[in-house]
């Protein structure tokens, strides 16, 4: 279907163009950009901003329900690259069978490969077990030489099956031998794929850590030449963001392929059994058990004894961890610093939506009441635009689309050549387009009500198919396609 977006402010970070013109979508591609274009379907977008849809490198949402929240936030491609899924072939098959509003893709899961070899958790259980695997200590130890070779072989097999690089949850196994991380980096360099790492603790937090988390990335990038992505630098750096960003900048200045992402929230979400939720580790971070809120019940943990009880009873239970106080000007400035860092990519770390009856999926829209998740699932991109463009005026719209669309797409160019059609609006680009109201774009999700959709996304096209029209979700639209790596 040919669709003409007429009279909008077109922002293309691929060419640097920012001006009023028309965009013609045809056959799932951008067919033309300019004046004097015609089509049977014309959408008046005067006064609105038209740009390439947002590419989220860090989404743990694997449901229609969750992706609909992300669609209302301007996302057209949602990728699980920090954790990944295993087996990769099953992950793609199940997503295709269920249908997705957005494009999707997965990395090879370092933690799942280790869980199979070190803890005997079968690969078919990885997708179903989710956060429960992260809270299982059996896979978090160092490997023998034989075990290392075994799980590296599994990772390599996932790359051959089309994984978009290697997702490394090092922060969930922070005491492991550093040589193992270096071995993964060497594998990534040989295969020509990126790594996406949740780093281990910083030395300021735990002087006994085998190696500082951020230093580990830059050393591995320099030694191996691998492209290495530092996930959610805001949450893993906390009050030490100055030192971490300086470390990464020095590495990039020396020519290493190190990239970084951030999201605009002062609380994270994970499994309560995660290594860094241990009461003693919280204390090292300057946090306490009361910084932890159990997602399903809303319980704010009272003390260390109660936290240990919860971790023992259900280590996979999702929780919120407050690491910065967004009401505190100093902490708010640290969040701003992570977003403002040159070339920092916006990524959500979106989490699944849960209901108390056990559901993690629904085709109802609006979503049924009582759903719980982290507000970043629904609001990361709109909140970032509100903070950085509308309120602070620090980013132009061109810079905003560069951070949300162009830079994340370019990170994937080598592993998945199909990504070259994303993140820009040149002729032949994928027709993944967001049209937003620059005056009203904002998040509405809160920690108390986390499934409220963002406002201001007026239209969203995924492969040329409208998923949002006039600010309303089109519930019958499931045009998402897989983004896969080339076999390695």
From TrEMBL:
Ranges of residues in domain Amidohydrolase: 42-268
Ranges annotated as spanning the membrane: none
InterPro entries with a match to the protein in the record: Amidohydro_3, D-aminoacylase_insert_dom_sf, Metal-dep_hydrolase_composite, Metal_Hydrolase, Metallo-dep_Hydrolases_sf
Entry-linked PANTHER family: COLLAPSIN RESPONSE MEDIATOR PROTEIN, HYDRANTOINASE/DIHYDROPYRIMIDINASE FAMILY MEMBER
Listed NCBIfam families: PRK09061.1 (NF006560)
Protein name: Amidohydrolase family protein
Organism: Amycolatopsis heterodermiae
């Amino acid at each position: 279907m040919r669709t003409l977006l007429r009279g909008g402010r077109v922002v293309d970070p691929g060419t640097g163009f920012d001006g009023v013109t028309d965009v013609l979508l045809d056959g799932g591609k951008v067919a033309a950009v300019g004046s004097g274009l015609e089509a049977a379907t014309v959408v008046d977008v005067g006064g609105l901003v038209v740009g390439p849809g947002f590419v989220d490198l860090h989404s743990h949402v694997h449901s229609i329900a969750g992706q609909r929240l992300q669609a209302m936030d301007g996302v057209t491609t949602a990728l699980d690259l920090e954790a990944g899924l295993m087996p990769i072939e099953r992950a793609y098959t199940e997503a295709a069978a269920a249908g997705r509003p957005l494009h999707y893709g997965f990395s090879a899961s370092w933690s799942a490969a280790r869980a199979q070899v070190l803890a005997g958790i079968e690969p078919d259980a990885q997708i179903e077990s989710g956060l429960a695997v992260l809270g299982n200590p059996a896979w978090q130890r160092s490997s023998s030489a034989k075990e290392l070779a075994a799980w590296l072989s599994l990772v390599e097999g996932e790359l051959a099956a089309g994984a978009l690089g290697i997702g490394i949850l090092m922060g969930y196994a922070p005491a492991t031998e550093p040589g193992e991380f270096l071995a993964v980096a060497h594998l990534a360099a040989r295969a020509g794929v990126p790594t996406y790492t949740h780093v281990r603790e910083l030395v300021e937090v735990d002087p006994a850590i085998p190696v500082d988390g951020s230093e580990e990335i830059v050393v591995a990038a320099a030694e191996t030449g691998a492209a290495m992505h530092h996930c959610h630098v805001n949450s893993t750096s906390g009050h030490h963001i100055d030192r971490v960003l300086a470390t990464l900048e020095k590495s990039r200045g020396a020519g290493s392929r190190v990239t970084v992402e951030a999201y605009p929230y002062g609380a994270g979400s994970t499994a309560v059994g995660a290594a860094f939720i241990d009461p003693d580790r919280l204390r090292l971070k300057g946090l306490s058990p009361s910084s932890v809120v159990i997602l399903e019940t809303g319980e704010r943990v009272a003390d260390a004894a109660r936290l240990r009880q919860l971790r023992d009873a259900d280590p996979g239970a999702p929780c919120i961890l407050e690491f910065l106080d967004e009401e505190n000007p100093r902490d708010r400035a640290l969040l701003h610093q992570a977003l403002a860092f040159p070339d920092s990519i916006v990524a959500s770390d979106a989490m699944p939506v849960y209901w108390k009856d056990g559901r993690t999926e629904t085709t109802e829209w609006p979503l049924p009441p009582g759903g719980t998740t982290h507000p970043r699932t629904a609001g990361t991109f709109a909140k970032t635009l509100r903070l950085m463009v509308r309120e602070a005026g620090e980013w132009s719209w061109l810079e905003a689309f560069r951070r949300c669309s162009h830079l994340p797409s370019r990170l994937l160019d080598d592993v998945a050549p199909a990504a070259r059609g994303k993140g820009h609006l040149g002729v032949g680009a994928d027709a993944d387009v967001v049209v937003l109201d620059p005056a009203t774009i904002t998040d509405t999700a809160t920690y108390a009500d986390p499934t409220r959709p963002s406002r201001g996304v007026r239209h969203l096209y995924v492969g040329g198919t409208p998923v949002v029209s006039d600010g309303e979700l089109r519930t019958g639209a499931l045009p998402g396609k897989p983004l896969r790596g080339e076999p390695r």
